[in-house]
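Entry 12.
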Amino acid sequence: LLIVSCQPKEKFNPIIFDNSQLEKFFISSKKIIVNDSYKPIFSKNNIENQLRVSPIVRLKSWINNNISQIGNENTLKINILDASISRIEIENKDAKKYEGKNIYSYKISYLLEYELYDNSDILISNTIVESIRSTTSNKYVSLNELEIITDEIVLLALKELVKESKVQLKKYMGGYILD
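Predicted 3D structure (tokens):
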């Protein structure tokens, strides 16, 4: 009886990041350049430094594993403009009488710019893709719960970014995308 009462009331399954489950893109180019112009702002609300794996690392991993060049003309530049995740304390308007009055709101934002240049370094086409997701949690969560909450929102935002990238790349670079 004592062992049963000490068991955790909820079991959390870890979020698995598997780039092979996400869309792959083949671009007609000889080179892909990834410019990381995003610089995290270290503040009370920015929690990237508290995560085991930050959103920028997840994004770069997807880019490196799922965007490939085929051919010997053109250059694709991918500019990472934002990959931030923040947490702010907000009032819980739906709180019951004995529940906490404050909760945390998490927000992740991804912003990418795709630019395709010809061999003379003239811009052929470009597009910007953005993904923003948010969620909430109780104010007091364990480190394990924090990791699961943030991993889940990062994965959802990344999936949304990939889906929107596919739409935008087909629309603006359709002749250079190989299926």
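Annotation: The longest strand covers residues 75-91. Strands lie at 25-28, 31-36, 67-70, 75-91, 102-117, 123-138, 177-178.
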